[in-house]
Amino acid sequence: MDRRKELVQQYKKIKIEAGIYQIKNIKNQKVFVKSSIDLKTMTGKRVQLLGGVCKNKQLQEEWNQYGEEAFSFEVLEVLEEKTEGFFDKKDEFKRLEKKWLEKLQPYEDSGYNVQKIK
After folding, report:
1. Cβ distance 21 to 77 under 8 Å?
2. Fewer CB within 10 Å of terminal CB in the chain, N or C?
3. Is the residue at 79 inside a domain?
């Protein structure tokens, strides 16, 4: 088997996990809560912050001020897909995100998220 086919097969075996993660500023305890259909994107968010191109300006400013070592990245919950019965992944994903936003309230002085007006 050629190398390309082998790599494609390996990639197909990688489990993609959706869920909720947080970026926490250890200095002031502020958090940024984010949902992702692929939790490996946390690495991408770190790269954005390192490159100074994160869309969340307040998070980027404090990253620049305190440095990478002042932040931790943590998976809060992985979306568990049900194998039996009806399962709406999109609705369950929204419910999970809402749960963590309500629990952590990462707004204003407590975090970097922007509260959506209802």
Report:
1. no
2. C
3. yes
Helix-strand-coil split of the chain, %, nearest 5? 45, 20, 35
92 is a domain residue: yes
Contact 37, 90 (CB under 8 A): no
Residue 58 covered by a domain: yes
How would residue 80 be classed by pLDDT, with cut points 50, 70 and 90? Answer: confident
Backbone phi, then psi, for 74, in 5-degree steps? Answer: -145, 135
Which two structure tokens, joined as six digits, stand for 86?
A: 């009806």
Neighbours of 58 (CB within 10 A): 15
Residue 92: how many other CB atoms lie within 10 Å: 15
